[in-house]
Write a structure and sequence with these properties.
The complex is a heterodimer of chains A (about 160) and B (about 750). Chain A is built from 6 helices and 5 strands, in the order ββαβββααααα. Chain A has helices at about 20-30, 75, 85-90, 100-115, 120-125, 140-155, and strands at about 1-5, 10-15, 50, 55, 70. In chain A, strands 2-1-5-3-4 form a 5-stranded mixed sheet, sandwiched between helices. In chain A, a hairpin with a 2-residue loop joins strand 1 and strand 2 (about 10-15). Chain A is globular. Chain B has about 750 residues and is an alpha+beta fold. Chain B folds into 3 domains: about 5-195, Aldehyde oxidase/xanthine dehydrogenase, molybdopterin binding domain (Aldehyde Oxidoreductase, domain 4, 2-Layer Sandwich); about 210-285 and about 335-425, Aldehyde oxidase/xanthine dehydrogenase, molybdopterin binding domain (Aldehyde Oxidoreductase, domain 4, 2-Layer Sandwich), CATH 3.30.365.10; about 430-460 and about 495-735, Aldehyde Oxidoreductase, domain 4, CATH 3.30.365.10. Chain B is about 30% helix and about 20% strand. Classes of the chains: A alpha+beta (about 160), B alpha+beta (about 750). The interface between A and B is large, with 58 and 60 residues.
Chain lengths: ~160, ~750
């Protein structure tokens, strides 16, 4: 069956079973690296992507549910030439150890910044409560999200 | 005066070959004396460093990147000695087809081992290339310096750079150890915080992880098993129906080894779930399921008992009172964020395996034993996965994939464990009990120290031969290997007894290790090994004495220390605590301190943790950690701080939250709900300070902070509540019950 959706700004046709978790369609059919398999049961947040701007756990969301919607992964956030403020801040703050959780965390943070461009540290921690990091990079990540918010602000008020 | 150039001329021309791969031919040549360990074992210079005609430097260490930033730190060392910009150094992953064999990436020794080898190799290559340039430019080599790979004559750029001299040749020559590395006073790259070379790729979703490798015709496999390696499988009739499920290519069975392979990942998951319904497992009941009975069970189990350390001259004198206490930790999971995975491909008599193992050479030997292929027919390539924090399921998954790939030649097999496979199947950090009995003299100093440690093994990494039996695939196949004899790493590094000898200058000490022989679960190396529990015990015990006699805990420690670096981190901590206003904490808040030197030979780390405990609920908040660290020369200071911060948070999680929950049938923890870890809103603020000891050798930082963190939390809780928790984790439940 063909699933029509939009991923990172491009309309795509996916030839997969409708109940296939979105994660496998993104990783295996579209060869995207951003969303990660971590638990398969929506507990760790490594697979987080945005669907119409809202963070979802792609490991449990059937691909049928994104028909006609917009899916955003870290690849659609920015690239080396034109990084998203979050990507630039994660590099600047060295907010990774292994980096496996980073993509899901950046997507959760991107959703937060869209709604609240001046989050407090507590609001950032709360927005990331469903994302696990095993290396213990939490505080750097909070700093990076905060720095990204700052650069959002600077862009808005030149 | 003999210049380097004259020296080379005197010994004849140096050998330069065209060579695509590093040569092993010269590795047989006897190594020069006094080379660093890793370089002596792998003396061919081009095994470590290669320079291309365009001047690009390829660094090929034998240590793998596991999220600790080692590739960047080693690149800094190479860039420093070669005098090139860090950006010019390209680091390649560990691959048995070309990498030096540095065994395992463990024990916080990569900077010590690989770093020392690369420093020496790079210095020698620079010296050789300077001499070659001197010949071509017809000047004395002592007039030549190097600036970002360009040869400078009397301070002016010449027409030659490294690439012009190397051309398309590779240095095929063994290290002699004759070129002196730079003085640290000339360092330009080392000691400067460098951005990690792997981070941008991960921030942009580039191909960074093993999980991101995709090959044409790749199939997806899952294993079906319980957590017990020796459980015997009976497949109920009807299981063949699974082979007819959508996309299923093959059910692979070899004895009790069972896996299913499908065209698509979700198909392999569905097939594995169905197949599990047809499995009957004959397995043993776990002898221990009640966490509160764990310490007693540990000390009553069958064990190999031996005194592993003893010191002190003459009889014990002056003891006026004796204090004894017992401490414990539960079984802990590595709980990597990515369940174990491997890709294997069997093609034309060659088996290629991509793995996130910490030791691809030993793993190659283990797989050789399991699948019956000669080692030289197997190529192991390291690829990153999520952080492992020790020996997790990585090696098991690699052997699993190899077994499956051997049955489906020509197709790459991507074998991915499920989250439940990882929690129920990974080899765990062993539960431990540590009992300390100390004699104090009239001035309240410890003069006699007795420590008994009960633990399972902390070293069951796979290798060829018998040690292949540490892996599931070896134990499950039709002609299974037995579980290898229980062993442990001896002191001075130590396994269960790592960090068991106090750093303090007690007149007498004795450490006895009780190595349990019949562990119900596979146990192995988890970050820090025995150090975590031993430092928790020692530093809790020290605090209890100081607290009982109303003495400042830092004063009490310092007056029993001779080691000036240990005193240095404690004095540094005292200053930082004062700046942070941590001395004024009062119940329900409290501050605890602890200090250790990892392995008694590695980095020094002193930590003060501030906590607040809610009396009614026992809820514990970790407010703030202040940490002072001495790693000697810090290659990448920000990398060191990152590792220390991470160690504090991970060990905080172990200390206040984690324990594997057990039932008769096996491990009950099978997801993040049944094995919760610290989350974003629960981590403490952390401030890390590095002590300037740049003239001391560089030491690893990855395992320095775990032990002190545990005791600092316990000590803080005691000061906040008056309750001394000696059995980990320090959970709200224990705080309510005590």
């Amino acid at each position: 069956m063909t699933i029509n959706t939009n991923v990172n700004g491009t309309d795509v046709e996916l030839d997969v079973e409708p109940k296939t978790p979105l994660l496998y369609a993104l990783r295996n059919d579209l060869q995207l690296n951003g969303p990660k398999f971590g638990c398969g049961v929506a507990q760790c947040g490594a697979c987080t992507v945005l669907v119409d701007g809202n963070p979802v756990r792609s490991c449990v969301v059937p691909v049928a549910s994104v028909v006609g919607r917009k899916v955003l992964t870290i690849e659609g956030l920015g690239n080396r030439e034109s990084p998203h403020p979050l990507q630039a801040a994660f590099v600047q703050e060295q907010a990774m150890q292994c980096g496996y959780c980073s993509s899901g965390i950046m997507m959760s943070a991107a959703a937060l910044l869209e709604k609240n461009s001046q989050p407090t540290d507590e609001q950032i921690r709360s927005a990331l409560r469903g994302n696990l990091c095993r290396c213990g990079t939490h505080n750097r990540i909070v700093r990076a999200v905060s720095a990204a918010a700052q650069s959002y602000q600077e862009k808005k008020t030149p | 005066m003999t210049t380097r150039r004259n020296f080379l001329k005197g010994t004849g021309s140096i050998v330069l070959y065209f060579n695509l791969m590093p040569t092993a031919a010269l590795a047989q040549q006897s190594a020069a004396k006094d080379l660093p360990t890793s370089l002596a074992a792998n003396p061919a210079l081009d095994a470590w460093l290669r320079i291309a005609a365009d001047g690009t430097v390829t660094l090929s260490p034998g240590k793998c990147e596991i999220g600790q930033g080692i590739q960047t730190a080693l690149a800094q060392i190479a860039a420093e000695e070669l005098d090139v910009a860090l950006e010019r150094v390209h680091v390649v992953t560990v691959d048995t087809s070309y990498s030096p064999d540095e065994a395992y990436t463990t024990g916080s020794r990569s900077v010590e081992h690989s770093g020392a080898a690369i420093r020496m190799a790079a210095a020698e290559i620079r010296s050789i290339l300077v001499d070659l340039a001197a010949d071509e430019l017809d000047v004395d080599s002592d007039r030549i310096d190097v600036l970002d790979g360009t040869f400078m004559v009397d301070g002016r750029a010449s027409r030659l750079g490294y690439g012009d001299v190397v051309k398309d040749r590779t240095l095929a020559r063994n290290a002699s150890g004759t070129a002196a590395p730079k003085s640290i006073d000339d360092y330009r790259v080392v000691e400067k915080s460098a951005q990690r070379i792997d981070i941008p790729g991960k921030a942009f979703g580039e191909t960074s992880f093993l999980q991101d490798l995709r090959f044409d015709g790749m199939l997806h496999a899952r294993v079906v098993r319980t957590g017990q390696a020796d459980a015997k499988l009976t497949l109920k009739s009807g299981f063949e129906s699974v082979a007819k499920m959508a996309g299923v290519v093959k059910i692979v069975r070899d004895g009790s080894f069972l896996a299913v392979v499908a065209e698509r990942e979700e198909q392999s998951i569905a097939a594995a779930a169905r197949l599990a319904d047809f499995c009957e497992w004959d397995q043993i009941d776990l002898p221990i399921t009640d966490q509160s009975a764990l310490p007693d069970w540990l000390s009553e189990a069958r064990a190999d008992v031996r005194v592993v350390a003893e010191g002190g001259a003459g009889d014990v004198k002056g003891v006026v009172r004796t204090i004894s206490n017992s401490y414990s930790r539960p079984f802990l999971a590595h709980a990597s964020l990515s369940p174990s995975i491997a890709i294997a491909k069997s093609e034309a008599d060659l088996l290629t395996v991509w793995s996130h193992s910490q030791g691809v050479y030993p793993l190659r030997r283990a797989i050789s034993t399991i699948v019956g292929l000669a080692e030289d027919r197997i190529r192991l390539i390291h690829a990153q996965a999520a952080g492992c924090y020790g020996h997790n399921g990585a090696d098991d998954a690699a052997a699993d994939a190899a077994v499956v790939a051997m049955q489906i030649p020509g197709r790459p097999i991507r074998l991915q464990w499920s989250r439940a496979d990882e929690f129920s199947g990974e080899p765990y950090g062993s539960a431990m009990r540590v009992e300390i009995s100390a004699g104090l003299n009239a001035s309240n100093a410890i003069v006699d120290w007795n420590c008994d440690i009960w633990s399972g093994s902390h070293t069951t990494r796979p290798d060829g031969g018998l040690k292949a039996g540490n892996l599931f695939a070896a134990r499950q196949k039709a002609n299974p290997l037995p579980m290898p004899p229980v062993g442990d790493i001896p002191l001075p590094r130590g396994g269960a007894d790592r960090n068991s000898i106090p750093l303090y200058t007690f007149a007498h000490h004795r450490v006895t290790k009780h190595l349990l022989q019949d562990m119900p679960l596979r146990t192995t190396a988890l970050r820090g090994l025995g150090a975590y529990a031993n430092v928790f015990a020692i530093e809790s015990f020290m605090d209890e004495i100081a607290q009982a006699q109303g003495e400042d805990p830092i004063d009490f420690r310092i007056r029993q220390l001779d080691d000036h670096r240990a005193i240095g981190v404690l004095e540094g901590l005292r200053e930082k605590m004062a700046v942070a206003g941590m001395h004024s904490a009062a119940p329900p808040a409290g501050v605890g301190v602890a200090m250790a030197r990892y392995k008694n030979t590695g980095a020094y780390c002193a930590i003060a943790m501030g906590v607040t405990v809610e009396e009614k609920t026992g809820n514990l908040r970790l407010d703030r950690a202040v940490c002072v660290v001495d790693v000697g020369l810090a290659i990448n200071p920000d990398g060191v701080i990152n590792q220390i911060e991470g160690g504090i948070i991970q060990a905080s999680s172990w200390t206040v939250k984690e324990q594997l929950s057990l039932s008769r049938e096996g491990v009950k923890s099978n997801d993040w709900a049944s094995y919760p870890i610290l989350t974003f809103s629960e981590v403490p603020a952390i401030e890390v300070t590095l002590v300037d000891q740049r003239r001391e050798p560089a030491l690893g930082a990855g395992e320095a902070s775990q032990g002190p963190t545990s005791a600092a939390i316990g000590n803080a809780v005691s000061r906040a509540t008056g309750k001394r928790i000696r059995d980990l984790p320090i959970s709200p439940q224990r705080l309510r019950q005590t």
